[in-house]
């Protein structure tokens, strides 16, 4: 017996159109809001409020490099004065930050083994009007320097303080 | 004469690869999307540095303070015109930190995102204000320069 007009098998394919619509909407949203931002990094500064407690007698005090940043025309840096109590210098001109790094390196070398000494600290005293970008550059100069290979960094001073403007 | 009706020839396009790629793209954008942008004020132009250290771990509690060139501070999308007006905000933040298990203000990390043209005096003022609230861990944020 032959059956004619046999029913075709039900084609139950899901309609993909709404899903594709939503997916494209999402994609458009993410593409529009996408923004390439540079990575951020930190200079860590520990600045407790000065206390009146006297430090223990046997405590070895660190060598403090006083760094004074002077502001000139248009709030740009005009010079850097450094003082360790034993040695004081003034750096000006284009090489002032390189000179500051070299001075810190020399001081660290003279200090010797940081575990047996009190280490080296840098205390900044900054002209309040100075642009912050110069302050960061000075902090970079005392914190370390890029090695000639351009990849590795030689760390110098890690203890950085700001002298309060009122002091 | 009876003609047999011909079935229309359906040309089906296989959408699977396209949907695969689209989902991959969405996943990519979702992963790299920065959800903490409200903490950052986009108008701040950070100074750059090639030796600053990228933050290795998120501290237990941190306060992000964006300092504009004009001396105003942006915190959590809210603009505070003068640094002197930060006292109540810092009190509220230290209270929140205490409720979230960081009772000692000295353990709170303050991230200072100052504009490169801001006055250094303003940055110092901001730090001094935070010190008044017994905060003492500061991170001066910069952009990484390659």
Question: If you had to describe this structure to a student in words, what would you say it looks like?
Answer:
The complex is a heterodimer of chains A (167) and B (146). Helix content of chain A is 27%, strand content 26%. By secondary structure, chain A is of the alpha/beta class. In chain A, α2 runs parallel beside α3. Chain B has helices spanning 16-32, 87-99, 120-132, and strands at 48-49, 62-67, 73-75, 78-80, 109-114, 137-144. Chain B has a 6-stranded mixed β-sheet, with helices on one face. In chain B, β3 (73-75) and β4 (78-80) form a beta hairpin. The mean pLDDT of chain B is 86. Chains A and B meet through α1, β1, α3 and β6 of A and α1, β1, α3 and β6 of B.
Derived from helix and strand composition plus strand pairing, the structural class of chain A reads alpha/beta
Our estimate of the beta-strand percent of chain A is 25-35%
Number of H- or I-type helical stretches of chain A: 3
Approximate shape of chain B: elongated
Number of helices of chain B: 3
Q: Quick one: which chains have the greatest interface? A: A-B, 49 and 48 residues
Biggest sheet, spatial arrangement of strands of chain B: 1-6-5-2-3-4
User: How many strands of chain A?
Assistant: 8
The first-to-last residue Cα distance of chain A is 110 Å
Residues in helix, % of chain B: 25-40%
Describe the SSE topology.
The complex is a heterodimer of chains A (167) and B (146).
Chain A: H1 17-33, E1 40-46, E2 63-71, E3 77-83, E4 88-91, H2 96-111, E5 120-126, H3 132-143, E6 144-146, E7 153-155, E8 159-162
Parallel strand pairs in A: 2-5, 5-8
Antiparallel strand pairs in A: 2-3, 3-4, 6-7
Helix pairs in contact in A: 2-3
Chain B: H1 16-32, E1 48-49, E2 62-67, E3 73-75, E4 78-80, H2 87-99, E5 109-114, H3 120-132, E6 137-144
Parallel strand pairs in B: 1-6, 2-5, 5-6
Antiparallel strand pairs in B: 2-3, 3-4
